[in-house]
Amino acid sequence: MEEIPNQELNRNQVIExxxxxxxxxxLLTRYVEEREINFKDGKDYLNLNLDVAEILRDAGMLDEAxxxxxxxxxxxxxxxxxxxxxxxxxxxxxxxxx
Length: 98
Hints:
Elements (H helix, E strand, L loop, with lengths): L10 H10 L5 H11 L5 H17 L3 H17 L3 H16 L1
């Protein structure tokens, strides 16, 4: 794993790390942990999970991204956010088509 100094990670660093070694998810874990510190409610978790799904997609980890988008779709459906649910389903479908 490439060592990143004690500074906040950005999405591009995490994506690049996953592209280089999809098995090493330590930077992704650190990225998530850094963002969880300031969470106030469930919507914050939903947004973070959406961010993670997009990171996985952008890193080329399409099976994992597909599963993440579908999980988020079910969560958004349960919360009654139909607009977000449709957007998430569309993202999952784009991945399945590839």
